[in-house]
């Protein structure tokens, strides 16, 4: 009799997001609304609850998680009508509050809504802002950005630019260095360069264009998907995608996932287990229980076989 050979569980790098390295962070989806047109947006077909809870309820739910760091997302979070009130309340409660935006509203006096942030992340995907407009559908003025950043830095808000590597845009070491010069001209504190997630047609490997410097690799699951460097005086973080996020890298076999999963608060005041990909992916617990009761009764009465029951259950929860 052959001995059973158990495949060894492969653990993710301890500093990866999926290893609970960021377990004291809470993501909040403030609104499904967005004025951008990013082709890779996963939220276009994402889960959008019909209900929108009040500012007070949302604030209470966020506090109930006891997370120290709160990052406000969307959609485009600056379109949330009570953005200043929520930031101020969370800051007064001792939270470190961050916000990620496409930068479309960062002009005139809008900065006054954001003065109690710990950090502002602005997604700009090319140093040529006309090309950035091609990518995201947003018209941004560099002077507006500079003035807004300067005013926020007077309130000790850290500014980071987020840039996705995109084929024909930021796709080589040469243009990546030009982006760094652009960021320095805006006097920001740091940059995050990231590979595209689930967008294989425009995917650019950070490791390949930078000749695998700074710990960049083709196995981010075990070797680490977050790497850091200081280039020309600018703090840089690199975010690579593993095989669970791009088909251009193999999926890790038999991965060992952390016991604790990431929670996300949606604008309906509900805490979900990770981001919801759409209503079809949600399981209504009551409906599932009722369905299982019927299946088990049919199995007891020999009305259906075990194999038939498996097929029904699989189809229901797919």
Task: Name its key features.
2 domains; TIM Barrel; 10-stranded mixed β-sheet; 318 residues; alpha/beta; single chain
Topology:
Elements: E1 25-29, H1 55-64, E2 69-73, H2 83-92, E3 96-101, E4 119-123, H3 129-136, H4 142-153, E5 158-164, H5 173-185, E6 190-194, H6 206-209, H7 220-223, E7 226-231, E8 234-239, E9 263-266, E10 271-273, H8 285-300, H9 306-317
Parallel strand pairs: 1-2, 1-9, 2-3, 3-4, 4-5, 5-6, 6-8
Antiparallel strand pairs: 7-8, 9-10
Helix pairs in contact: 8-9
Proportion in β-strands: 15-25%
Helix-residue proportion? 25-40%
Q: Averaging pLDDT over every residue, what do you get?
A: 89
| Order of strands in the sheet with most strands | 7-8-6-5-4-3-2-1-9-10
User: Count the strands?
Assistant: 10
Brief overview, please?
The chain has 318 residues and is of the alpha/beta class. Helix content is 28%, strand content 16%.
Fold and architecture overview:
- The protein has 318 residues and is an alpha/beta fold.
- It folds into two domains: 17-278, Aldolase class I (TIM Barrel), CATH 3.20.20; 287-317, no CATH class.
- Helix content is 28%, strand content 16%.
- It is built from nine helices and ten strands.
- A ten-stranded mixed beta sheet has the order 7-8-6-5-4-3-2-1-9-10.
- Strand 2 (69-73), helix 2 (83-92) and strand 3 (96-101) form a beta-alpha-beta unit.
- Helix 8 runs antiparallel to helix 9.
- The two termini are 36 Å apart.
């Amino acid at each position: 009799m052959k001995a059973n050979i158990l495949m060894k569980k492969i653990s993710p790098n301890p500093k990866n997001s999926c290893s609970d390295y960021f377990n004291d962070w809470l993501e909040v989806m403030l609104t499904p609304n967005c004025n951008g047109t990013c082709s890779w947006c996963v939220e276009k077909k994402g889960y959008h609850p019909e209900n929108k809870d009040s500012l007070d309820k949302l604030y209470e739910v966020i506090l109930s998680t006891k997370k120290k760091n709160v990052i406000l997302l969307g959609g485009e979070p600056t379109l949330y009508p009570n953005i200043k009130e929520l930031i101020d309340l969370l800051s007064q409660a001792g939270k470190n509050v961050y916000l990620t935006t496409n930068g479309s509203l960062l002009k005139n006096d809008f900065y006054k809504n954001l003065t109690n942030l710990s950090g502002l992340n602005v997604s700009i995907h090319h140093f040529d802002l006309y090309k950035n407009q091609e990518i995201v559908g947003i018209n941004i003025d560099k002077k507006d950005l500079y003035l807004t950043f300067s005013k926020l830095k007077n309130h000790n808000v850290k500014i980071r630019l987020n840039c996705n590597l995109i084929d024909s845009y930021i796709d080589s070491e040469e243009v990546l260095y030009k982006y760094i010069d652009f960021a320095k001209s805006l006097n920001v504190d740091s940059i995050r360069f990231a590979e595209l997630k689930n967008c294989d047609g425009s995917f650019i490997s950070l490791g390949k264009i930078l000749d695998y410097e700074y710990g960049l690799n083709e196995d981010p699951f075990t070797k680490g998907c977050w790497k850091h460097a200081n280039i020309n005086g600018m703090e840089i973080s690199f975010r690579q995608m593993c095989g669970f996020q791009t088909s251009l890298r193999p999926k890790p076999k038999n991965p060992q996932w952390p016991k604790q999963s990431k929670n996300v608060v949606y604008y309906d005041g509900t805490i979900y287990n990770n981001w919801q990909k759409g209503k079809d992916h949600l399981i209504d617990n009551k409906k599932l229980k009722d369905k299982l009761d019927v299946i088990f009764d049919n199995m007891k009465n020999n009305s259906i076989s075990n194999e038939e029951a498996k097929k029904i259950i699989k189809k229901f929860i797919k």
